Amino acid sequence: MIVEDNLVGRAQLGPFYSLLVARTEASGDYDYEYTGFAQNAFGVADAEEAFDHAQSFRAAEPDGERVKWQKVYLEYMLEEGLNAEAEQLVASIESELSRRYARPAWLRLAKARLELRSGKGAQAVTELKRFTGGDVSADISKVSAPSAERLSAAVALLRDEHYESSVPQLLEATYAQLLALGQYQTSYFVGLAGVAFDGGDAERGDKLLRLLVALSAEETKDEAASEVAALPGVSERFAALSRAETPDEANAVVRAESLRLAAETEGSFGRYEQAINFRTTLSEEKPDDYSNRVELARLLAATGRREEAVAQLSKVISDRRAPRAARWQAVWDAPELTGGRRELWDSLMRASSAGGSSDEEMSAALKGRELWAEGRAGDAADVVARAAADDPNPLLAFFRGVLDAESGHVEDAARAFTAATRSQASADILTAFGADEESALDKLIRLRLSTGQPFAALKLASLDTELGRKSEDNVSLEGGVESVAFNRRIQNGANYLTLKERVAERRDRTEAELLALLSAAAEQVKDFYKAIEFERARLGRLTDEGARAASGERVRRLGQLRKEKARASKSPLVVDRTTVGQM
Predict the structure, then answer these.
(1) What phi and psi values does residue 24 have, to the nearest 5 degrees?
(2) Structural domain total, the chain
(3) What kind and span of H or E run contains 184?
(4) Is 251 among the domain residues?
(5) Other C-beta atoms within 10 Å of 182: how many?
(6) DSSP character for 164?
(7) Which whole number is the average pLDDT over 190-207?
(8) Residue 195 forms part of a structural domain
């Protein structure tokens, strides 16, 4: 009760956890599948590693009461920095589980964390490679594909302990092992190419992406597979695996996806010409992929070929078969591509009237975007309002809301954002405006906060099911390197980001800001539970150590205020001579 009901401060919990562990008997149960396997694993140096592969990294974990409290106690020690005590507890748990269970993932990760903290980084990374299946001992007779779940946990661990520099070698081992096993998926090549580019080996990165695309075509896939097996870092693994039982080879590369991700990867590392080539091929093969056509225009502009870029953008804007959101996305990116050149804006305006009949919506959108870029938000709002009166739709409504808010017309903006929110067109709004703008609902929340309406803002925030949630690290084999490379480019002030990356960067930044405002609003109205919830969600989005420390301190202060409020709300028990009948 003392521990579970938080009746003592966190700093005083250690002795109670210790007592709970000491007073709880070990269950004495076994994982008979593991013990039987270990007894018959002749000639294997590490039966636990062999069992991992035999079970495809899915092993039973002990679930007794004692090991449950040991796990909680260990997590507490790690969070409090009690590293020496945690090492002793890890050794104790390992001893109790020996010959009964394979060590559970959480225990092995805890041991690796302690090795990182004690300066044994190389040893920890070596163990993590085997833990994920990226590296395999020579005496393992059955080899499974690496575990995505374990890789995600290992990458998160390295980041938590500020060993980001070791993430690429962990990822490289995993991707190379997958290719050696003949497991061909687009994400594996993209991940390995990302490691190569991030490490300065552009030639290897280019080759991997070319092979990826070649694997997607029937006439080139066999030759490409032979080249993959001969790649440095893959060929050695391929030879070693010849003695083991391995999964069936599988080529799951899809043509359009491979071209798109190859282009994204090249472009995100500043290799614009290579990216243009991939996107041009994709545009020829899939002309209805309008997002690709917009990205192609952006790449052309990034290389100074603005006339070609605007010509590409014009085709999207004037294509009435294109989805409305794609045409709006092209309009929204127009200032970036024209570079302020009047004649290029004029060509875009002419494109909106292509085909002999005027497209009022696109004309209004372009004119409004032009006026706003010139600092004339009020005039732009009038243009968009006239178009919306004739043909109302959620994208016009959202744009009008942005312009009205910029012009200081708060209630007009609120009505526009409310209409856009009720339209259930959030996906289209994200496609069209998401690189720079929040959702209509989040815009509305900000308006209420800015006008001193905390209760209204908090009520609206309860409708945003995504705001308080932080996506966990992708349980995927490409998520780690993509986010590591992306974060590095953001920190280094990258000149070019794909629209998808711009959405991610903008979302992390604006959501952290909005959560801070909502936490302050909840504190203002003395809803400390909500204030803590918002601040914790914000903490999960912060990367700066100073900001994280301040946010953590705020959570603790709000927790104290919550306790004080709870104590104050309890009616005191008064003992007097009043009988029940008199009451």
Answers:
(1) -105, 125
(2) 1
(3) strand 183-184
(4) no
(5) 18
(6) G
(7) 93
(8) no
Q: What distance in Å separates the CA atoms of residue 94 and residue 157, rounded to the nearest whole number?
A: 20
Within a domain: 271:
no
Question: Which residue, among 483, 486, 461, 463, has the nearest Cα to 473 in the 3D structure?
Answer: 483
- Spatial separation of the C-alpha atoms in residues 101 and 31, rounded to whole Å: 5
What is the domain extent for residue 540?
Answer: 440-569
Radius of gyration for the alpha carbons in the chain, expressed in angstroms and rounded: 29
* DSSP helix/strand/coil, 210: helix
Band the pLDDT of 156: cuts 50, 70, 90. very high
pLDDT tens-digit readout, 463-485: 988 886 655 444 455 554 455 45
The sign of the dihedral angle between the CA atoms of 331, 333, 338, 340 is positive
Cβ atoms of residues 532 and 552 within 8 Å: no
Count of beta carbons in the 10 Å neighbourhood of residue 205: 25
- Is the predicted pLDDT of residue 95 greater than 60, yes or no? yes
- The more confident residue out of 41 and 458 is 458
In this predicted structure, what is the pLDDT of residue 167?
A: 92
Q: Annotate 427-447 with DSSP letters as a single string.
A: HHHHHHHTTT---HHHHHHHH
- The 3-state secondary structure of 381-427 reads HHHHHHHHHHCCCHHHHHHHHHHHHHHCCHHHHHHHHHHHHHCCCHH
d(CA 538, CA 550): 11
Within a 10 A sphere around the Cβ of 423, how many other Cβ atoms? 17
* Mean pLDDT confidence for 35-40: 83
Cβ-proximal residues to 174 (8 Å cutoff; 6+ apart), any chain: 129, 132, 133, 134, 146, 151, 191, 477
Tell me the pLDDT of the chain averaged across its residues.
Answer: 87
> How many residues are recorded in the chain?
583
- Tell me whether residue 542 is in a domain: yes
Whether the model clears a pTM of 0.85, i.e. scores above it, the answer is no
In the predicted model, what is the mean pLDDT of residues 64-84?
A: 89
CB 571 within 8 A of CB 541: no
pLDDT at 469: 66
pLDDT at residue 182, rounded to an integer? 94
H/E element holding 71? helix 65-80
SS (H, E, C) 462-520: CCCCCCCCCCCCCCCCCHHHHHHHHHHHHHCCCCCCCHHHHHHHHHHHHHHHHHHHHHH
Structure token pair of residue 510? 């604006």
How confident is the model over 232-249, as pLDDT tens digits? Answer: 999 999 999 988 999 999
Measured at the CA of 38, the angle between CA 33 and CA 43, to 5 degrees, comes to: 145
Contact criterion met (CB below 8 Å) for 423 and 456: no
pLDDT digits (tens, 9 = 90+) for 287-325: 999 999 999 999 999 999 999 999 999 999 989 899 999
